[in-house]
Every structure is written in structure tokens, then in C-alpha cells.
Amino acid sequence: MPLLDVKDLKTYFRTDDGIVHAVDGVSFSVEKGKTLAIVGESGCGKSVTCMTIMGLNAKRNTITEGQAIFKDRDLLKIDPDELRKIRGNEISMIFQDPMTSLNPVYTIGAQLREAVQLHENVSKQVANSRSVEMLKAVAIPRAETRMDDYPHQFSGGMRQRVMIAMALVNNPDLLIADEPTTALDVTTQAQILKLMNQLQRDFGSAIILVTHDLGVVAETADDVMVMYAAKAVEKGGYEDIFYRPEHPYTWGLLGSLPRLVAEGADLKPIPGTPPSLLQPPSGCRFHLRCTYAFSPCVPDVPELLPVGGESASDHAVACHLEPEFRRRESHDLLHEVMAEQQV
Ligand code: SF4
User: Fold this and answer.
1) What is the pLDDT of residues 254-302, one digit of tens each?
2) What is the pTM of this model?
3) Based on the domain organization, do 91 and 184 belong to the same domain?
4) Spacing, Cα 226 to ligand 1 middle (Å)
5) Least packed by Cβ within 10 Å: which of 115, 183, 231, 235?
6) How far is the CA of 328 from the centre of ligand 1 (A)?
7) How far is the CA of 24 from the centre of ligand 1 (A)?
8) Containing domain of residue 53, as a range?
């Protein structure tokens, strides 16, 4: 049984200009102890997907449909008080910028203790010692004394470690990390990713990692869901997406990954820009940027279907191209990338 099973999730926002289709029929699941990466360009709906699961969208303007089953409870339908108890306890979230999540006028220690005592009836001493242990687990030096420091006294990387400590202090079953390393330099990013992998091994939490960076995915993910314009266009295991990708958008993402391109070789950006979600394009939402688009792509919305063949059965793609053609193109793309790496 998956820990979290999301089915046909839709999140629409009412705005003065009309309805924004921010998430439009997305399904996925996460298993205990595994990491699912949700990948795509800014504005494709990956963060809104997580905010919806956590019940953090403003109720007044939001229309939500579908299911998010977590331990036999539908997070989209349960009582707000029950959801509040789950948040920060059974499910935690880390955001991109820790400064917006940490309160600047309270010490780190006070905030960590509060996170413990909000969900458990324990003494201040117990909350304190658990907080110190957690700061040590995320490799904050002199954890006991740093409990008395304020967020501004920590560097960006240290603040993100504190956020991870706060998210994990109640040993959640599921950690949702929304671009947790985007604001950090490359060295600190590598440290944080290593730390998240380590903590996942130690605590057995499942992770949903939201990112636009395929390099980060390569470091951490067991499963990957690629989103484009509010829909999932490809899903599969890490190896399916990196070694047997079958969607033209995934090919575009892999082709434009700077780390895979050798010095002197051309970067291949995906042409055009993502469409407006106020009036999403008809048919395949990628057709305006897809160099493979052909006649069925405009009227017919491609379904996300298992690719079959040699790939694992949970590898699925939403594209009208013939499976044989997709596999050939995928093979050629990979061949090209490998050749460029050897330049
Ligand atoms: Fe391109 Fe058509 Fe496939 Fe969409 S369905 S990705 S437009 S080939």
C-alpha cells in the first residue's frame, strides 16, 4: 500500500481574469522510505500540488477535486483541525526560503521546542533535548549553544538545515520538500541533499521533492513525475526517466541540462514559453513547443498510459507518438548525450 495515494487531483484558482487551472487531473503515489521527485518548469503546478495536499491554499479562491489518501484518510476531505494535527507531525514541509518560514524574533531553540510541544504533551526539558539532538543530526556545530541564536545569526545553508531539523523533529512519515536547495550555492546544495538522503535512511520517511533541477533529481529520487502546464506528462522510476525517457518534453529537459553537455557543445533549450493556465491550449498542452507535433496533437488530449515494452510497468507517458518511434528517439537522444560527454 502506498503511504500517499493521490488520484485525479485538480486545483483551480478563481481570479479576476478567470479560472487558473493550476493542477489539472494529476495522479501519483509515494511509498514509505522512497523519494518521489516532481519535476517541471516554474508555474507547471508542482508546488500547488503539494500545497493542496497540505491544505495550505486559500479556501476562498480555490476549487479542489480528487483524492489524497494518506493512511486511510482523504486529506482533501478531512476536518481542518485533524489536518492541522497531521501537518508538522505526520507530514512536514520544507520551503525554498527558510527565512520566510522561520520567525526572526524567536530563537531557533524556541521554535524547535514549539514544533515538538504543539504535537506532543511533553515537558520543556524533553522538547529541548529532542531539539538539540535534531540539530546535531543535521550537523549544526555546538547545537546546545546555537539553540539560543536567532535565524539571522545562521548562514543560508545552516538555516535550511534548521528547517530540515524542524521538519523532522516529530519523525514524520512524509516530508514534502519544495525546492529545498534552490537558494543555496552548489556546495551547500550537495551537503543538504546528502543530509536528506541520510536522514531518510535513519528515520525511514518518504519524501516528495519538488524541483526544476534534474541534477537534484539524479542525486535523490527513486521515482519521478514530470509535469507540464498542470498535467503529468511522464512518470516512472529514476532509470525510466533518465535512461528511457519517452516524452518530448522530458527529452527537452534532459537535452538542456548543462551538466550533461560537454564544453564547446551546444545547449539545447526548449523553444518557446509555457502556456497560460488561464486558457490552457487544447489537445496536448506541449504542442506549441513540441518539434514532433502532428495532426492528432491539437484536438486530442493524450492520456498518461503505461509504455509497456522493456520498461517497468509503472513507466507511463502522455504522448500521441508511436511507442516504437518514441523508443528510437529516446535511444538516439541518449546516444547523442553520451557522445557529447566524450568530446
Ligand atoms: Fe508532442 Fe504531440 Fe506528443 Fe504532445 S502529443 S508531446 S505535441 S508529439
Assistant:
1) 887 765 555 666 667 888 899 999 999 999 999 999 999 999 999 899 9
2) 0.90
3) yes
4) 14
5) 183
6) 15
7) 18
8) 4-221
For 75, the grid coordinates are 486529506
DSSP state, residue 38: E
Pocket test for ligand 1, best of 319, 324, 329, 330 (most atoms within 8 A of CB): 319
| Nearest Cα residue to atom 5 of ligand 1 | 319
Query: Would you tell me the crossing angle of helices 156-168 and 124-137 to the nearest 10 degrees?
Result: 130
For residues 307 and 204, give the distance between their C-alpha atoms in angstroms, rounded to a whole number.
Answer: 30
Overall number of domains in the chain: 2
Decide the pairing of beta strands 4-15 and 62-70.
antiparallel
Q: Quick one: 213 and 254 in the same domain? A: no
Pocket, ligand 1, Cβ cutoff 6 A: 248, 284, 286-287, 290, 292-293, 297, 302, 319-321
Q: Could you tell which of 246, 317, 320, 333 is best to mutate to test the pocket of ligand 1, judged by most ligand atoms within 8 Å of the CB?
A: 320
- Asked if residue 234 belongs to a domain, the reply is no
Are residues 264 and 167 part of one domain?
no
**DSSP letters along 199-249, please?**
HHHHH--EEEEEES-HHHHHHH-SEEEEEETTEEEEEEEHHHHHHS--SHH
